[in-house]
Design brief:
With 421 residues, this protein is an alpha/beta fold. It has 13 helices and 16 strands. A hairpin with a 5-residue loop joins strand 3 and strand 4. The chain starts with 20 loop residues before the first helix and ends with a strand.
């Protein structure tokens, strides 16, 4: 036996979780329903690897204060930098660019998988989480964005969230860019401050108008004593941004016209019943969005694990990213898509009591009374007969006696055991 000082401590890294059978089966059942909706809309499955060349992913994450700007990266033996993907969109852009001539356009695809963020972990904030995406590449008009918003609504209802308990909120980054121009933050030299302003607007639901005002100005001190530096706008600039958030109005802006088209298309399809709304406070954090952006928010109150009543918030989001594929091809390639946070949606359904717990019957356990070869062969034959009849079964493979075997079967939840010997 290893000396106590030499033993490796079994510990899970911060920001990661172990998954158990019930959670895995529940998520599988939920994602199967999501997949059915995507297939109904004519989308095809596709899959990219977890690791991409770092330069292919680009530098689009909002958290730029962490090592490698929020991405887990390492250097290969040929000195090429590789990174774990931080979302499913950037790898898709690489795939489309690399296979551009062979793919039909518009290219409608969906994919699910794990993504990784090198961020500071916290409650509900993980470094590894699952996303389920759908994208259309090759459609310049906002009809594709309207369809994405409608499909997002249908997906939420398919997994068990009833109409009235969610809203798909839509905005346009062109409108937001117009606001930023109006307060003097145009040009590449103001890119950092523009992003700070957008992040401040994105915190409206969390901190309210007064919190946004502080983040647009000098900054905000939270209850823990942490200070978030603000955008440094003057009073006039802050007033313009807050007025836009309240009214959504800005003169002579292409984005406003596009939002009008999306509203009309959704109304024509019957989605103007509160499911899809134009909301000037929707930002989306990633920098690569270039046009319409949308977010699926759950509007009902839920009780969290601490017994507190909270509004659950966003479970999915996305938008138009016309420049992402273009990075590889040097020509305009319009694209739009959205991503469902599988872990977030699973937690929401769990709070609602609508997470499907698939009732899987535990296996019948064939106990091993004798360990000679002939007896083991006889037990194995029993197990095979049960399996051929469609009954889950296993032969006890440990080295313990009958009492311990019965205890094992009990812990497995076996409906019965087979004793022969």
């Amino acid at each position: 036996m290893a000396d106590k000082a030499e033993r490796t401590k079994a510990r899970l890294p911060r920001g990661f979780v172990d998954r158990h059978a019930a959670d895995i089966r529940a998520v599988d059942a939920m994602t199967a329903k999501i997949r059915e909706v995507y297939e109904l809309y004519g989308f095809e499955p596709v899959e990219q690897p977890l690791i991409e060349y770092t330069d292919a992913l680009g530098k689009f994450l909002p958290d730029q204060d962490r090592p490698n700007e929020g991405v887990f990266s390492f250097q290969d033996d040929d000195e090429q930098w590789l990174s774990l993907r931080y979302d499913l969109t950037a790898p898709l852009a690489r795939f489309v660019a690399e296979n551009f001539e062979a793919l039909p356009k518009p290219y409608r695809s969906y994919r699910s998988g794990w993504v990784f963020r090198n961020e500071k972990p916290g409650p509900g904030r993980f470094r590894q989480f699952m996303q389920f995406d759908a994208d259309i590449v090759g459609t310049p008009g906002v009809a594709a964005d309207a369809e994405m918003a409608m499909m997002m609504a249908d997906t939420l209802e398919a997994v068990g969230i009833k109409r009235g308990d969610y809203v798909i909120r839509v905005n346009n980054r062109k409108v937001l860019d117009g606001v930023l121009e109006a307060i003097g933050l145009g040009g590449a030299e103001n890119a950092g401050r523009r992003l700070t302003v957008l992040r401040a607007i994105d915190k409206l639901d969390k901190f309210g108008p007064e919190g946004v005002r502080l983040l647009l100005g000098r900054g905000r001190l939270d209850e823990s004593g942490d200070f978030t530096k603000g955008a440094g706008l003057d009073d006039a600039g802050i007033a313009k941004v807050l007025a836009y958030i309240e009214t959504g109005e800005i003169e002579d802006n292409e984005g406003v016209a596009e939002l009008g088209q999306i509203r009309a298309l959704c109304a024509a399809a019957g989605y103007d019943d509160g499911r899809i709304k134009i909301d000037p406070s929707v930002v989306r954090g990633l920098e690569y969005y270039t046009g319409p952006v949308y977010e699926a928010e759950l509007t009902f109150p839920v009780v969290n694990e601490d017994g507190e009543t909270v509004r659950f918030g966003s479970v999915a989001g996305g938008g138009r990213y016309d420049g992402l594929v273009s990075r590889f091809r040097g020509e305009p390639v319009p694209a739009t898509g959205f991503s469902i946070g599988v872990s977030r949606l699973t937690a929401a359904l769990k709070n609602l009591g609508k997470l499907e717990n698939t009732d899987v019957i535990a296996p019948v356990v064939v106990l091993v009374m004798d360990k000679d070869t002939d007896s083991l062969g006889r037990y194995q034959k029993m197990v095979s007969a049960l399996r051929q009849a469609g009954i889950r079964a296993e032969m006890y493979l440990g080295g313990s006696g009958m009492k311990a075997q019965m205890k094992y079967a009990d812990r497995r939840g076996a409906p019965c055991v087979v004793i022969q010997g």
